[in-house]
Amino acid sequence: MCSRPAILIAMISAVAVSGVPIAHAQTAARLGSLDSVAERSWLSASVVQPESQDQGSVFRPLLFGALFGAGGFLAGALVGDAVDDECDNSTDYCIPTGVVLGAATGGTFGLALGVHVGNRSRGNMALDSLAAAAVWGLGITVAIVSDDDTARAITLAAIPIVQLGVTVGVERASGR
Fold this sequence. Notes:
Keywords: Membrane, Signal, Transmembrane, Transmembrane helix. It is built from seven helices and no strands. It is mainly alpha-helical. The protein folds into two domains: 4-46, no CATH class; 59-174, no CATH class.
């Protein structure tokens, strides 16, 4: 018949070999008494400490979001211009609808991708994209229904700033 410490050591060894983490050495030691200091130090060495939930600085997701958003905005505008030939023969000042939609789409998803990459992919890219798109849709709606040209200009200028802030918040919250 095996003694209680021998069974305890066998159980802890099986857990350590299987890769299942033991949350705390004192909790494992409370399961039974160990006979020697050497066995206790072995137990302490085999305990897997939980990873830190620190998300680091918010600067990196903000920077990457701004850079990727600007790149996506330009790339989307170029693709939209290539697809839409609405103003090819126009002598008046004209911005094709494809350029506007391409820039908005590229900027929105570029920003979400940049924030996700900047946060070292800890969050949820789909939620980031939905949040950025929701802010864009709400901002455009407010700009369209506004009768004041100054309010409309301020709203359009604020959209990417609010998008960036909301997307970073969603990325960091979903990455916990």
